[in-house]
Write a structure and sequence with these properties.
Elements (H helix, E strand, L loop, with lengths): L16 H11 L1 H27 L3 H18 L2 H14 L4 H27 L3
Helix pairs in contact: 1-2, 2-3, 2-5, 3-4, 4-5
């Protein structure tokens, strides 16, 4: 019995394309594109800081970073990311260590997939 199965978690992410379209209408294409790119950079930094805070056991910094993720997600229509980030905040205040760890790992996966989805969407015309 040497068969080992490695499971890969792949989840679809949900984007509110209407939120992105609203940004383009309100700001104009050039400014909206700049704003979205800055938000994507901020998101990547925030995801890394959340993971670092978790590794150091800094729950307050972790929660601050997750709140920042939620704000970014709401701004550019990352509905899946916002939902999972809220779940992380809820679990960070409790005693469910396994649930918290699993949800934090999910936040990382959803965050990465959301970044890719918005980058891909930017390549298409809104």
């Amino acid at each position: 019995m040497s068969d080992i199965v490695k499971m890969k978690h792949v989840e679809a992410v949900r984007l509110d394309r209407g939120q992105l379209e609203t940004l383009f209408v309100q700001m104009g294409p050039a400014r909206a594109d700049k704003e979205i790119n800055q938000s994507l950079e901020d998101l990547a930094v925030a995801l890394a800081s959340v993971q670092k805070a978790n590794a150091r056991g800094q729950t307050d910094l972790l929660c601050e970073g997750v709140r920042h993720l939620i704000a970014i997600a709401n701004k550019i229509g990352m509905t899946s990311l916002g939902r999972v980030a809220r779940d992380v905040l809820d679990l960070a205040q409790g005693n469910d260590v396994a649930g918290f760890s699993a949800t934090l790992a999910r936040l990382g996966r959803i965050g990465e997939r959301s970044l890719i989805a918005v980058w891909d969407l930017q390549d298409m015309s809104l």
